[in-house]
Amino acid sequence: METTSTLKITKRDNSKIADVDFNNLAFGSVFTDHMFSVEYVNGQWQQPEIVPYGPISMDPSAKVFHYGQAVFEGMKAFKDDQGDIFLFRPEDNWERINTSSARLAMPELPKEVFMEGLMELLKLDEAWIKAGDGNSLYIRPFHIATQPGVSASPSDRYKFMIILAPAQSYYSGEVSVVFAEKYSRAASGGVGYAKAAGNYAAQFYPTNLAKEEGYQQVIWTDANTHEYLEEAGTMNVFFRVGDKLLTAPTNDTILNGITRKSIIQLAEAAGITVEVRPVAVKEIVEAAQAGELKEIFGVGTAAVVVPFKSFAYKGEDHKLNAPENSYGVQFKKDLNDIQYNRTEDKYGWRVAVK
Ligand SMILES: *Cc1c(COP(=O)(O)O)cnc(C)c1O
């Protein structure tokens, strides 16, 4: 047993890495040797620990099971050809899990606990991060309410954990999307801006209905009027009309994606006009009819950029033919070059793990 300041580390005896086929990884299905865990009891975060990865035990009445006090993050670690490891804007994930936690009446986590736990865990399971384009380690921090008892009030105990899953390049296939006309992802005044577990649960059913109709994703519209486009599945969304880029402003129904805000900065630096404003269904349909709509793509940590090949609205399909100078392809390359330490990082987004 070793301790790093207050962090207690208990290592696994033998690594399971030899059993893993790194050429055949289903996204988020294999986890590394260790996990990070810290509990919140009596109004205080307790001693953080890294322990061998494995099941955790909880009382069946724990509030997370009944009232859904659960939030999470998604981030990635990358290895360059020299074997050095990098994160992408990790402090933004720390800030966001605290924003999400506050909305669900959960305590905020100190930055040192998050960053030190993450760094030490990555160093310990460093062999699980493979170099090479498309390879990464997906990082899943999450925070849950553990107090036993089914009274409908906020928990007084919590657990924050980080688990790691090796990932390969994420190819989503050809993606057709449908604009939501009936269901909503988030309502104003609600929890749409939080990375709350329940937001995902609520999306599964309408997304399944869309899948039955032959669409892989739903582009969510505002809950009040269904006239404005908000997010694509669990990604932020960009529309390219002519040579302009449009994306909705983040508000209480739209998650403040780190990929989204990075792409806005890259686009502006490249001299592309970016309009951050409500994007109406009507203007996108009209742009498509006029041949002005060049691209629609979803953006997020898992896939970086997912180009859509068509969208459907009121039963009509509108095809999109990716132009040669695709913005989506360019932004994905620009971000990957920074993430894999292949280019200068003008913005200070890359953080070395050491
Ligand atoms: C996580 C998430 C995103 C993307 O955020 P990134 O920080 O870019 O990974 C977008 N929308 C929703 C609803 C999300 O949960």
From TrEMBL:
Tell me which EC number(s) this protein carries: 2.6.1.42
Cofactor(s) named in the record: pyridoxal 5'-phosphate
Q: Name one Pfam family in it.
A: Aminotran_4
Q: Which GO terms describe its biological process?
A: isoleucine biosynthetic process; L-leucine biosynthetic process; L-valine biosynthetic process
Q: Does the keyword Transferase apply?
A: yes
Q: Matching PROSITE patterns, A to Z?
A: AA_TRANSFER_CLASS_4
Q: Does the keyword tRNA-binding apply?
A: no
Enumerate the UniProt keywords alphabetically. Answer: Amino-acid biosynthesis, Aminotransferase, Branched-chain amino acid biosynthesis, Pyridoxal phosphate, Transferase
Top-rank taxon, per record: Bacteria
- Catalytic activity field: L-valine + 2-oxoglutarate = 3-methyl-2-oxobutanoate + L-glutamate; L-isoleucine + 2-oxoglutarate = (S)-3-methyl-2-oxopentanoate + L-glutamate; L-leucine + 2-oxoglutarate = 4-methyl-2-oxopentanoate + L-glutamate
List modified residues, type N6-(pyridoxal phosphate)lysine: K195
The pathway that the record names for this protein is:
Amino-acid biosynthesis; L-leucine biosynthesis; L-leucine from 3-methyl-2-oxobutanoate: step 4/4; Amino-acid biosynthesis; L-valine biosynthesis; L-valine from pyruvate: step 4/4; Amino-acid biosynthesis; L-isoleucine biosynthesis; L-isoleucine from 2-oxobutanoate: step 4/4
Q: Name one GO molecular function term.
A: L-valine-2-oxoglutarate transaminase activity
Q: Which PANTHER family does the record match to this protein? A: BRANCHED-CHAIN-AMINO-ACID AMINOTRANSFERASE (PTHR11825:SF44), SUBGROUP IIII AMINOTRANSFERASE (PTHR11825)
Q: Which family does it belong to?
A: Belongs to the class-IV pyridoxal-phosphate-dependent aminotransferase family.
Function of this protein? Acts on leucine, isoleucine and valine.
Return the protein name.
Branched-chain-amino-acid aminotransferase
Give the organism the record lists. Answer: Dokdonia donghaensis DSW-1
Write the lineage as a comma-separated list.
Answer: Bacteria, Pseudomonadati, Bacteroidota, Flavobacteriia, Flavobacteriales
